Fold each of these.
Amino acid sequence: MRDLGGHYYTYASCVLPAAERAGMQPVLAMHRDFRDLPALPPSWQSHAVFRNKSYSQRYIETGSATSGFSSWWARTRSKWRARERSRLAASFAEDCATLFSQVTLAAGDHVFFASTSEIDLEGLAIFLQSAPERYREIHWHLQLHLGIFEGRDPDYAQQRGRREFMREIFLHALKRVPSHRIHLYCTTRELTAQYEYLDVAPFYTLPYPVHPLFLLPSAPKSSSDSVRIACLGHSRREKGFRELPIVVRRLWNDYLSKGRAQLVMQTRRRDLRRALDSTVADLGAHSATPPVVYAPFPLDLERYAELVRSSDIGLLLYDSTRYYSRCSGVLLEMLSAGVPVIVPGGCWLSEQIHDENQRHLRDIAERGTALKQIGDNSLTWQGQRTTNGSAISFTDRAASCEFDLAPGARSLLLGFRWLEPSTRGTYAQLDLEQLDAQGAQLTNFAAIVGPGSDPSAVYSLFHLHENAQRVRLKWRNAWDDGTISVDSVECRLYAEHYPAGSVGLTAANMDQSGELLGDVLLHIEHYRKRSAAFAGRCTEYFNADQIVAQLLGAESAAQPLAESLPKRFDLSA
């Protein structure tokens, strides 16, 4: 933590007061560059000691070339990275020694490294190896934020080089401190699964905390107010902000030009501002309400929380593969403030709203009056598939079927039972092609669906074009070539244009953002009401008291690290 901006300070501002409420004395250690000590609460002990940041992704080895110059370069790069890792680990160990010469620890105390890497673990192990004997009675908690593998769970087995590289680092570090009470955590269940795959020690998932400032009530909003569509947080490449000009064009005629909606962009990047300003200038005249406004980055916590609460829709154009296992504080802040969101499908972000959206769609299936229902027996499937009774199986090659629509149908609710696989990380892509009376394609819209917490009843809702007479439904595995099997497929057609979600919507690709925003804008009161109700349930889990309770609860399950290491690991070597 270098300053009061960003999520590091927010995290500390959540967890340390929770520790105080639990009867602990809070101590905060941060980067040497931190200059805002007077702004911190006087009850905190604060120490600016660390000289490096915690990111280490660039040092993960993925394998090496086998011949010629490439082989020489790979060996040279690997040696340089090894030296750099050793340097950073030694630096971390020295900074720990500096910190704990200033902070006296006693048996039963807890030290929580809230954002760490495998290099920090190495450094801590080096420090503890020569630390006083009493430090074996301290609880050392390390939380990892960064992934090991690329892609999703089905891709991990093919990345043996990454696994062995990281596994060796963890085993080498943990070997140094077999008698210490080390507890390892990740910020999401998906990330925890990656680290468990190393088979070196138990890993647990800690909830990410949302600050109470995001829970304060916001000013009432009327249907005549301009709807604020917010893109907030650090504008890194994987957050997809370059897609925003497409969104602006899609919403221009009906919303942005008329002042019915406004895009709020938080960035300090001039290239992004120029791209948006150029798009607005090209599109022409608009109302007195600016179509696009900019908020500074970073903002202090109070102003940032106010910006989130004043938003009506959160637009998170993130790369779904990069965020498959990665936590987003911005998303949790939006949901906790009662703001509906647009997020990519097939990743941690979409999983946060999946169950709530499924409840909404299940309610339509149970209470809505269908114009027509089309079941398994009425569907004829073509393409890559096998059958097992009534089951439909498909891989990355699509299986498809076609059927006629009922006159006046405006919504199609697809329901099915997910049979396999039951492992995480597999998603189906459903493409709905809508055809007119002559068989010409009117639209093609894709949805990403997974089994969720209730694979026995999975739903997806599509809006229908007014001129559509027939549809073609295609199924395929969205990201790998494994087989997906489903059954009990049923399509229900409704005359009503139902909202497609409850607390937000998921995009198969971010080109859909404009269309998805159109759905939320059309049904804005529905999404506001459902998101406000969901906010309370969200904050029951994503709060600092849960974190502190889990950390302190580690005492009851405490055991020397040696008891949880793999049996084949030689502690005496």
Amino acid sequence: MSFKTRESGCIIVQSDLTVLLETDHPLYEDARDALSGFAEMVKSPEYIHTYKLTQLSLWNAAAAGITTEQVIEELRCFSKHEPPQIVISRILDWGKRYGRVKLLIENGRFILRCDDKYISAELENTKAVAKYLTSRLDDLTFEVDAAYRGHIKQALIIAEYPAEDLAGYREASPLVFGLRNMALSEQPFVLRPYQSEAAEVFHANGEARGGHGVIVLPCGAGKTIVGMAAMTKLQTETLILTTAITAVRQWIAELTDKTSLTADQIGEYSGEKKEIKPVTISTYQILGASERHRELMNSREWGLIIYDEVHTLPAPVFRMTAELQSKRRLGLTATLIREDGLESDVFTLIGPKRYEVPWKVLEKSGYIAKAECFEVRVPLADSLRMDYAVADKRKKFRIAAENPGKLQILQRLLKEHSGRHILVIGLYISQLTLIAEMLDAPIITGKTKSGKRDELYQRFRDGEFSVIIVSKVANYAIDLPDANVAIEISGTFGSRQEEAQRLGRILRPKPGENRAWFYTLVTSDTVEEGFAAHRQLFLAEQGYPYSVVT
């Protein structure tokens, strides 16, 4: 990085811990990729993007092996001015707090060990932590009830001492299997370099410092494959939790196709089947539905629990996960963003971010499609302006989202992309039903039975029809490899994770030109513009600028 002189800097580090990045600077992409490792994007207008240094972003960086010295060096290399001393001090303080408290097993006892006697004294006098400390063993060490391993980690992160969990895992039931070189679908199968590396980082040679954490990869990059690679390294019975029954069956299909596991070894635990086998796939909804279903967690000696789309993990499953810290835990996601602000619970209960590859890096390598994103501004008809003017904020949003003018734009886009595989995605069922009738196209909503959904998805893959209308049910874990155009007619307010997931539906690599187009239709001069800007934040951080079209 020696060529990056101060005069060539493209960022300004401010004393409020924000970082301003110039998007038209030659070093923009290098700086963006560096910042994504230890800072969070806040906003992304055309020319200046704003990032924020936070405790959690620095703790994730520390867990991934990025030292505080490296963070400071990156900021100095890309900065126009010397970063304020207060920022340097905060980075050193926050970043070095990770790992100053460790959880260990020694002589059969579950213990908490601090770096120095001052930290141990502070924690002993912090009520939220002290209630889990059963006895003091020496100046630096406490014994802790192992049943509260997850709970004390949550208390420690609130006390701003995120624990490094080195306590290891309980013995689990073995399961011997491997990955195929030739899939049953008669396609050659080999791990991509980043998939192999992600599994290696998670496994960490079987040491206690590995075996828990989150892998962050774009939709279409093969997170399921990473999960299977981690399973083969551990050779143990595995419970896989995902978002919906369609995703359950996609996992079953992939495991059957690409591993030596047999149908007798793979179970579906859903509303339709209650199979518990050495590898069992279920949904978050089933697990949180009743105590009877929660017994699934303890029905076998699971050696690994995989949390697919971990950013959607519901609160009841978080609570169960707090009691499962003696099992290896792998989270898979395209984004760690949670709209409920529970990123710290993912960090403590599943584990820190272990591995991430920027979306644009995989795009350049051809592993995901090259996507172009457009925000299409649609005016609101004069006949609706008064209704909009006198409505409350929620009603304003719905009027803007269901703007009839969007239907004309939709038809123009469908004509422009005739012959391609197109998803029309929206929030409001009445709006989607109208579009389905207008286009004489199939529609999939939450009320569509799972068998019918699978049939329609397969017919779309087979090319029987080129346009399919989908509601929020298609936000997650739907494998539609040929889809290369997505038109978002309406979205869930300012949900960044939803925007990322919807783009992800069209990012799987395509033969030939390997391109994709993503359109979000936004009613101009309404609250929808503000929500759309917030929705786009995460994708802007990943290098997907939106071209605004009127």
Amino acid sequence: MISSENKGCLIVQSDLTILLETDNILYEEARDSLAGFAEMVKSPEYIHTYKLTQLSLWNAASAGISPSRVIEDLRRFSKHEMPQIVVNHILNWGKRYGRVRLLIDNGKLVLRCDDKYIAAELENTKQVAKYLLARIDDVTFAIDIAYRGHIKQALILAEYPAEDLAGYRDAASLSFELRKASLSGLPFVLRPYQTEAAEVFHADGKARGGHGVIVLPCGSGKTIVGMAAMAKLQTETLVLTTAITAVRQWIAELIDKTSLTAEQVGEYSGEKKEIKPVTITTYQILGASEQHRKLIDSREWGLIIYDEVHTLPAPVFRMTAELQSKRRLGLTATLIREDGLQSDVFTLIGPKRFEVPWKVLEKNGYIAKVECYEVRVALDECLRMDYAVADKRQKFRIAAENPQKFCALQKLLKEHAGRHVLIIGLYISQLTEIAELLAAPLITGKTKNSKRDELYQHFRDGEIPVIVVSKVANYAIDLPDANVAIEISGTFGSRQEEAQRLGRILRPKPGENRAWFYTLVTSDTVEESFAAHRQLFLAEQGYPYSVIESDREPLIN
């Protein structure tokens, strides 16, 4: 391993992979640069692997990172000469973004190409041609405005991601302002990155703004960014989020930190059907029936906010294709989607507009400083033969529900006595048993919303030190005092889920501002490889996992 102040930390390879040395003095600077235009593939101890893709370069281009800057950064950090084929791919892919543009011309939607050759190519590309109504000139086509989203999807398949400059229809106005002090009396001031995120999204009201995704870690105040965007636009807004708990958190935040009143903010859920100038609902409700989908057309919404946009389900994607005349803001901690629909987020909601490395926010005290550990646990002896003869899926479940994990869990609870602990898992039977053994409350998807809210409040108040939670913890829940998360089992290799679960403990804490994240993994089983994949996203953000054995005393120093 070469490590020197005078030598680069990257090896750029002709297959578009990039190797990053983690013990190099330039590591952190290079990692933060790569996050803007490359995707992490794997992250063992000493060498992290990234990949350049079309979508990563198109997101970079839309955020103002030009192909020439990508090449310049790679050369600046590289140990060796960069292969020319990589330079060619960066230039060819990067420059394709914006070579076709959607515009309004004389009140009609048109597609305008950079030159007649691109126009001819698109006219002869089947998936694009069906949306081209007529030629206007050598480089311009008339488009049915109803298919604005559909043609954007077709264009990205044709490797010509469109820059959408067609603007938005007039919407119902809504006058309000952000408070200078919350209703509790505490000062309320936007953090610098929150202000910048809202300004980048708004883009001074120009057509280049008003659609796109803001990527910030859980606990960093993405809801505040959404409110700041609303305040800039002064328009009626529909907020889509993951669950009724998140709906009510949005309502509470809006009333606490803006001049909006309870009469202006509505909950559209299974329990209430309020449609007001600002309405908050869930993806599940919106995708449930045509009756609920009419909510989209019930008012002249000027902005639709997609909270936790990485969870956006397919039925809502389809509806989103019809919503291109409305401003669209996606909020997320990660653009990773396990279903591979990142390109649909790009086309239908918009490209990534703003992102701050998690470690930068941690350094400035905006989120907690987190220590991540993978605790290796031996497979229970009585399960070894069952594991040996099981298929891969059943092997995973046997490893995930390994009873020896409970011993490690007890050690961790003892060592973190007095702290606010979340125990998070996948399998309800396993979680039920743990909750009973610990005499701790269990929250699952079947727990009534009123009961969830009650338990969460007792946890916030310190009356309950430990809560056992299922996948409901993957989504927006506001538990600012939670400072220990113990992942007992997870959804195979889901990077998205790992990021969300870490996010439950990222909110800044009074005093030492520290938190601990543990993943319990059964040694020498398929769970190890799935855990390594889960940790990829967090490693990209600068969170290395320390591996410790469960029989160590104590588990942590």
Amino acid sequence: MPHSIQMRSHAPVNRGARLNARLAAMFPYALGGLIAVLLLPVATIAVLAARAEGGGLLHLGQTVLPRIIGTTVAVLAGTGALALLIGTAAAWIVTLHTFPGRDLVDRALVLPLAIPAYIAAYAWGEALAPTGGVHAVAARILGWQTPQDGALPDVRSATGAVLILASVLYPYVYVAARASFLQQSAAVLEVARTLGCSPLEAFVRVALPLARPALAAGTTLVMMETLGDFGAMQYLGVETLTVAVYATWLQRGSLGGAAQLALGALAVVLALVVIERIGRQRQSFHATSTRVRPLPVRDLGGVQAALALAGCALPIVLGFGVPALVLATHAMRHLDTALTGAFWRAIGHSLLLATLAAALCVVIAIVLSYARRFKPTPLIATTQTVIQVGYALPGTVLALGLLFPLAGFDNGLDALMRRWFGLSTGLLLSGGVMILVLAYVIRTLAAALGALDAGWSRLSPNLDAAARTLGLDAIRVMRRVHLPLLKPAIGAAAIVVFVDCLKELPATLLLRPFNFDTLATTVYAAAALEQFEGAALGALAIVGAGLVPVLLMQKALMRQPT
């Protein structure tokens, strides 16, 4: 009898061990499948481009391609340089100086990240219109009598695109630069001052080189976001490679030409990544002193304090204040007409897609991040590298790379089912929401994985060892020990992915089922018809959701010692 009891008590353990062994054996195949799915858009683009006739690309090369490449390079360089200037200057002023309002502007300098670039472009287009708010203020000051009086700058140009995108993307540089400056020691600047450097010279010759890796990463991120933007560029009439893919595919009817342009966009993304890594690795700067003390803070007063406050407040006003004011004004004026059935359906569709994508991303990220912690392998490292490729894909390129293989699978399956069973399966993957969810997962999985990696890095390996000595296997350690401690990181990952999916435009526009609108596509359609004021409430909802991860980022930044 005792022997039978002993056997029954060990049965669950044996079953658990067998299950873990099966999962471990299946895991490499699951990773291989994930890599295949993540690389599917890139492989599709390469195949379509290779099969395309050379005449299409030759025609593009002789007509519009040089102009498109020149415009793309100019906009990327201009936006990156301006965002670098704004973000670095603001971070230096806030980190090394105190003045009235410093804490407020420090919190507010990250707010423009809540404004998607296409919504900022629509809002500035409304503000600078002859009947817009800027013209009304100028009319009162200058005595203009009619909307035709005066001449405000035309925002629909490459220059306007650079100014608008830099105004909403500079926080990427600001956050990176601020964190880097906070981690520097006062000793290095003191040495520079003893050698006769002025504060400005010490900043340029010492602090900037130490912050170079962070500045390179932030600027590269700005340029990638600029390259991937579709809504703002199309509205502003700036034909970059991303816009050209859409126009060549759907307006010019050249699938091969669109694939070749998409391949060019991927080459630009790869070049940006290489440049960023060279910028970080070509020269290595670090402080060797053991006297790690916070940087000295200088008190400003009078005119200097006013200039510092104005300099930090200006990008906040341009990047967040004006667009938010335009959205709020239009939303209040058209509240009754905006709250329609179509608006609530768009909200429901947006919430459904974002929730499904966030749940999938979080689950995949938890498994991958834990696998890397528990038993890192080259396959896991390769998977995480491939995930970064998905984040860098512009939305139009991602849509083009997913639609054709999934549509081909659906058509093949439908033909097979008709032949064998006389049944039609329809478009299971390419005609429903699943293709959108897949696009969102490929696009945002890197963000979820980054949040989970950061959370797991804060958990001591001793927790794993202690749990294993108590007889817990790897899965139970994760379920009983890690996951309860990772709730903040899991929540942050879910929020970031959710909001990114909520404001995603180009992939949604190209892959959505018929008569399936989201908040982003509703705003885009209204702006295309010059009726943006009617969709301002939807745009305001996207901005409101975007404030959540931005405020979380700001809170994390404020935790660092100042």
